[in-house]
Amino acid sequence: MSFAAVTRQGARYARFAQLRCFSSTPKTSAAAEVKKLGVIGAGQMGLGIALVAAQKAQLPIKLVDTSQASIDKGLKFANKLLEKDVGKQRISQDDATAARERLSTSTNIDDLSDVDFVIEAVPEIPDLKTKIFSQIAQICPSHAILATNTSSISITRIAAATTTDPTDLSAPSRVISTHFMNPVPVQKGVEIITGLQTSQNTIDTAIELCKKMGKIPSKSADSPGFLANRILMPYINEAIICLETGVGNKEDIDSIMKNGTNVPMGPLQLADFIGIDTCLAIMKVLHEETGDSKYRPAVLLRKMVDAGWLGKKSGKGFYDY
Ligand code: NAD
């Protein structure tokens, strides 16, 4: 058989193995019970995930971040959100206190040794994510589900980082993506993305946890950008190209899309909320992994990251905050 034929056959098998995970045939595996959740990264996504899990799924959470400043900022924000909910009579003061008490924090990743499920939400840097997964495969119990909130990095690749022996699936089969949308307390959608190694029990447990958090899971194949960002990021990137080539100013670009497609904000404001660095990281993955020039990141997007104008989180993006 020629090399090309072998490669085609391998690709067909990989595709079959992946589609198997998305078949509608009922599976016998039952979701495992999650009694304690770990969240890595107390930034805008990690904090939101931890808060929603504490409120809706009523789970004890261990929130880990290497930066104490990020933890302090995150907890302050969580308190503000809880007080807002109390003020609007969406929850009682007792509910807010109980949710707050379910959140404990640490700057030491070793403190995740007793969680049943961990969700990683550190910056979109492939080497950082793979390093963390190789660590948590050792630290967390051998039954724990290891989930990532990555916007674009291959789940198969992240799962592979949990072992040095590709034939040993004990850790890689527990890796999955629960890709929450921003802002987590508001957006109901979660993408569930499986790697080639992910087991059915891992899928069932992740879906069950997301439902307990009040979310609506959708499944996506492990393909660059998955579903949400494969569609959303080229839209934002095109808006930035329209700005840099003078097709419209930022107000007009945002206004026509906001008022013309009935969405809460236009693409440039949305990019500020997502984080300009996150948008660039996702466009780079789409561009590099597909090799398709239609995903070329806008020049202005790169320049804004160089300038440190990362959007709302840095106080300056397309708009000032
Ligand atoms: P962020 O920059 O707001 O927060 C990242 C946090 O991780 C920071 O608090 C940082 O201190 C912490 N961190 C860095 N290195 C760490 C380490 N080694 N261990 C523990 N903590 C560490 O980022 P974010 O916007 O919350 O994004 C997190 C992830 O979620 C990324 O993968 C991103 O692609 C994805 N995501 C983001 C959005 C969005 O709209 N921002 C939406 C969906 C998914």
Question: How would you characterize the overall build of this protein?
Answer:
By secondary structure, the chain is α/β, with parallel strands linked by helices. It folds into two domains: 37-221, Rossmann fold (3-Layer(aba) Sandwich); 229-314, N-(1-d-carboxylethyl)-l-norvaline Dehydrogenase, domain 2 (Orthogonal Bundle). 48% of the residues lie in helices and 12% in strands. The protein has twelve helices and eight strands. The protein has an eight-stranded mixed β-sheet with strand order 3-2-1-4-5-6-7-8, with helices on both faces. Strand 5 (145-148), helix 6 and strand 6 form a beta-alpha-beta unit. The chain is globular and about 55 Å long. The relative contact order is 0.10. Nicotinamide-adenine-dinucleotide is lined by residues 40-46, 64-67, 70, 121-124, 128, 132, 149-151, 179, 182, 274-275, 278, 313. The site of nicotinamide-adenine-dinucleotide (NAD) has 27 residues, from helix 2 and helix 5.
Oligomer: single chain
Helical residue percent band = 40-55%
Largest sheet: 8 strands, mixed
- Written as H for each helix and E for each strand, in order along the chain, the element string is HEHEHHEEHEHEEHEHHHHH
Estimate the global geometry from the Cα principal axes.
globular
Q: Which architecture name of the largest domain does CATH use? A: 3-Layer(aba) Sandwich
Number of strands: 8
Computed CA radius of gyration, to the nearest angstrom = 20 Å
N-C termini distance: 60 Å
The small molecules bound here are: nicotinamide-adenine-dinucleotide
Indicate the CATH topology of the largest domain. Rossmann fold
Strand residue content: 5-15%
CATH superfamily of the largest domain: NAD(P)-binding Rossmann-like Domain
Q: Can you tell me the number of structural domains?
A: 2
CATH class of the largest domain: Alpha Beta
- Spans of at least 5 consecutive residues whose pLDDT stays below 50 are 1-26
Averaging pLDDT over every residue, what do you get?
92
Tally the helices: what do you get? Answer: 12
Family: Belongs to the 3-hydroxyacyl-CoA dehydrogenase family.
Pathway: Lipid metabolism; fatty acid beta-oxidation
GO biological process, one term: fatty acid metabolic process
Protein name: 3-hydroxybutyryl-CoA dehydrogenase
